[in-house]
Design a protein that fits this description.
468 residues, alpha/beta, D-Maltodextrin-Binding Protein, domain 2, six-stranded mixed β-sheet, three-stranded antiparallel β-sheet, 11 strands, globular
Length: 468
């Protein structure tokens, strides 16, 4: 990899200055996985100030914060989506070894999921009364899906006064259902981006249309850059992938950013993707040379095709995608991460929050052991850093600059500033995701854009109403 253009920002400063932008009312992605009424929710300058010292704990919260019984015994299962290297058995084995050094009698069996079949595997397990004890994923599944269905354990005893004083307020709200119950305990977060093949853009003289330092560009310059790359001979510049929901945070962010549209209202009670801004964005994408609606691929496929040079840009991207593909030797060009284009050059990026949830399988000992596992992985002073670094994302509380000296992670830190509303917790989310890629397929097949978008919103809002 060529020498990167990095931004000299301390990660801790970036997080402190920008994380409040994630917030919303009770508001959270998929890797191969989030927006309000006619304008994005206004960002505040900084998260709510944390207290100087943790508030006094209640008796129950003291028990959760410092589980004293290191001899507790249980066999529990952890099913983890590929959140960075939490999908790598060698790395996870090391994390569990750290845990067992303190809790030798809690045995953890791990199942590794992907974003193609993972949901089906868990739903099948639920139907068969064999749900895992622990799941590592995001609020759109843990809170808005399984939590809303009454399948998850209330984690209130993990959310001590101390935890609430340390974890960013916007993250807290995303981990809590509309019923006020905490169904997730968070570990890490990121801002999803897109990326370009800098080598191709340079050869096509298209770098003039973007700001490499800030990683931003306008909608007008995005069009000029794509046309320049297309005219250069790279006819597959990018793809609006839509064979399934994998990576749909990329297509949603692309459409919403181009003209300032939104995906839901600010209260996260209604889908608003049928705005004039979004219709205009979809019509633009449909008309552009080099941008194709491809019903044969999903986000993971797009990533692979970007890495092998088939595409000159990827919409399904983040720091973990680059780090993992660089580590595996899949990239032989310089990657330039970019925010999604917007009219004013000030994007609203989809954020990702990942953490742990516990299925209520009716076994008190297993539930307590699962809580002990979460507490150790997310709250132990030394282990929390290792747990977050394994994700290749950023902590949900200030752990200092855990990526000091890491050029790649320093470069991606600048995008946290642009994080927008975490809207993935609206009711009917699973149905809305399916309806979204179906809509993109219809548009790619020649359907009228406005008609297809109206059909999407009707379907999604019916699901949201049914979930209330």
């Amino acid at each position: 990899m060529k020498k990167r253009k990095v931004m000299a920002l301390a990660l801790s400063c970036v997080m402190v200055c920008s994380l409040a932008a994630c917030g919303g009312k009770d508001s959270g992605a998929d890797q191969t996985t989030a927006d309000p009424a006619p304008a994005p929710a206004e960002k505040t300058e900084a998260p709510a100030e944390k207290t100087e010292a943790p508030a006094e704990k209640t008796e129950a919260s003291t028990e959760a914060a410092a589980p004293a019984d290191t001899a507790q015994a249980a066999d529990i299962t952890l099913w983890t989506y590929p959140v960075g290297k939490w999908g790598d058995s060698a790395v996870v084995d090391g994390l569990i070894a750290n845990f067992n050094a303190v809790y030798p009698d809690i045995h953890v069996t791990v199942e590794y999921l992907d974003y193609t079949n993972g949901d089906d595997q868990i739903n099948t397990a639920i139907e068969g009364k064999q749900a895992p004890d622990l799941v590592l994923e995001g609020p759109e599944r843990l809170v808005a899906n399984w939590g809303a269905k009454g399948l998850m354990v209330d984690l209130a005893d993990l959310w001590t006064d101390e935890a609430k004083s340390l974890i960013y307020d916007s993250v807290q709200s995303a981990c809590k259902g509309s019923d006020g119950v905490f169904y997730e305990y968070p570990l890490c977060m990121t801002a999803h981006t897109m990326a370009i093949n800098r080598d191709i853009f340079e050869a096509a003289d298209a770098l003039q249309y973007l700001d490499e330092e800030t990683g931003t560009w306008t909608t007008e310059n995005f069009q000029k850059a794509v046309q320049a790359v297309y005219d250069y001979g790279q006819t597959n510049v990018g793809a609006v992938y839509c064979s399934g929901q994998g990576g749909d945070q990329g297509t949603r962010a692309l459409v919403n950013n181009l003209y300032g549209g939104t995906f839901t209202n600010a209260e996260h009670t209604e889908y608003t993707a049928n705005s004039e801004e979004n219709v205009k964005a979809l019509e633009l994408l449909k008309s552009m040379d080099g941008i194709n609606f491809d019903a044969s691929i999903a986000g993971g496929d797009e990533v692979n095709m970007f890495c092998n040079g088939t595409f000159a840009m990827a919409f399904c991207w983040n720091a973990t995608q680059e780090k993992n593909n660089q580590d595996q030797g899949n990239i032989n060009f310089e990657v330039l991460p970019m925010a999604f284009p917007s009219e004013d050059g000030r994007p609203q990026l989809c954020g990702g929050i990942w953490g742990f949830g516990i299925f209520d399988n009716g076994d008190a000992a297993k539930i307590q052991a699962a809580k002990t596992f979460i507490d150790f992985m997310a709250n132990d002073e030394k282990q929390a850093v290792e747990s977050v670094k394994a994700s290749n994302f950023w902590p949900v509380k200030d752990l200092g600059d855990i990526y000091a000296g890491d050029e790649l992670m320093t470069e991606y830190a600048k995008f946290v500033e642009y994080m927008g509303d975490y809207y993935q917790v609206v009711g009917g989310w699973a149905e809305a995701r399916t309806a979204w890629w179906n809509m993109l397929q219809q548009i790619g097949s020649g359907a009228d854009v406005k008609t297809a978008v109206e059909e999407f919103v009707t379907t999604a809002n019916a699901a949201a109403t049914a979930a209330q």
